[in-house]
Description:
CATH architecture of the domain at 10-36 and 63-118: Up-down Bundle
EC number: 7.1.1.-
Strand content: under 5%
Transmembrane segments: 12-35, 66-87, 93-116
Shape: flat
Order of helices and strands: HHHH
Number of helices: 4
Number of strands: 0
Radius of gyration: 27 Å
Subcellular location: Cell membrane; Membrane
Pfam families: Oxidored_q4
Helix content: 55-70%
Structural class: mainly alpha
Family: Belongs to the complex I subunit 3 family.
Amino acid sequence: xxxxxxxxxxxxxxxxxxxxxxxxxxxxxxxxxxxxxxxxxxxxxxxxxxxxxxxxxxxxxxxxxxxxxxxxxxxxxxxxxxxxxxxxxxxxxxxxxxxxxxxxxxxxxxxxxxxxxxxxxxxx
Length: 124
């Protein structure tokens, strides 16, 4: 087989499209800034949160439990994504694929057992 060589001119359409996209973004931001209203007032500059009055400071500390549960959720949610391609290709992977998935699920369940034993999911 003969290797295909690409010249820099072959990438010209991609560079042009990227340049046009960036130019569109910059021009749109400049134009909206220039033609947009600039009236300021105390009520208008106040943050709006779905009609709920603002209370306290946004910098108040949040319990670490919230972040632990969020990270655990993302971790196990992403791991479940790996089950779909395995299920689609189950027959073609054969016994080795099945054993690998049993190992994968075993490690996943071991991690889940560990976080339960550590009490990460217990909310106070």
